[in-house]
Write a structure and sequence with these properties.
Length: about 270
């Protein structure tokens, strides 16, 4: 291949940083106000928030959110058992107070001017901003957080439709954002110039059907276990005070996710074989 493409935007994420700072600030204020409602029960989450602040200065917590939430759940279960605290009250109050970290991060980002790469393409790799069909709220707050990287050789289809540019990579449908009509034309011309063989374009109705189906799969696979887990902890686990029931509810919710994925895959295979 010849040449490469790199498309930039100045301070693309700054608007989202303002929104993030306001949102985190409001949530943090709720956490501060909750301290005055029951200051004794607020001492453990307040201490944990201060410790989290100092840990975040050494290790960027936002880069390890999965382990952060796993540790938070186990810590909340332990403290609710030892100190007879409300599981959900501790978790919500701690998260609200910890939003001060988000405010600090957003303010520091707003101070700096930068140019963000929203699309790049060369012979080996390409990157773009491609949120999912139900990620628009998150994308509005942090568009650069949805930047993803792929192998150029894995591109199967690239075309333009009424919604903009569409790229299919290993069966996954991508819709790069923030691209103008002239930039899309430049990207399509790149593939024509380099004589890259691609599969035939797929019909738009098929694309929209797959995108809608993907939304419902995410709602079913992740929404149902979370809802059932929350209801189980609230009603059966006495709002988190029954540590054993709460822990079992969380474990069953985690195990339910791969089970639902397996059932959906079996159903999809059976539908294709008909």
């Amino acid at each position: 291949m010849k040449n490469s493409i790199q498309i930039e935007r100045k301070n693309l994420g700054k608007k989202g940083n303002y929104a993030s700072a306001i949102m985190f600030g409001l949530i943090c204020l709720l956490g501060i106000f909750s301290i005055f409602l029951d200051w004794k029960s607020s001492i453990p989450p307040l201490i944990c928030m201060v410790l989290t602040y100092f840990v975040n200065r050494k290790i960027l917590i936002f880069s390890h959110l999965k382990w952060f939430f796993i540790g938070l759940i186990f810590l909340a279960l332990l403290l609710s058992w030892l100190l007879q605290l409300s599981f959900w009250m501790f978790v919500l109050q701690f998260l609200a107070l910890t939003c001060i970290l988000g405010v600090i991060s957003a303010v520091n980002t707003i101070r700096d001017d930068r140019r963000d790469i929203i699309f790049s393409l060369n012979a080996d790799n390409f990157s773009c901003l491609c949120p999912g069909t139900n990620d628009y709220k998150g994308y509005a707050l942090n568009p650069m957080g949805y930047k993803k990287y792929f192998k150029t050789g894995d591109i199967e289809i690239i075309q333009q439709d009424k919604s903009g540019l569409l790229i299919v990579v290993k069966g996954e449908i991508l819709r790069p954002r923030e691209l103008t009509a002239s930039e899309i034309a430049q990207i399509l011309a790149y593939f024509k110039t380099n004589d890259i063989e691609l599969e035939e374009a797929i019909a738009s109705p098929d694309i929209y059907h797959e995108e809608r189906a993907l939304v419902w799969v995410k709602i079913l696979v992740f929404g149902m276990p979370c809802s059932l887990c929350g209801l189980s902890i609230y009603f059966l686990g006495d709002n988190g005070r029954n540590t054993i029931v709460s822990a079992i509810s969380i474990l069953l919710a985690i195990l339910l996710v791969p089970l639902l994925l397996k059932l959906i895959n079996i159903w999809n295979v059976s539908q294709k074989n008909k």
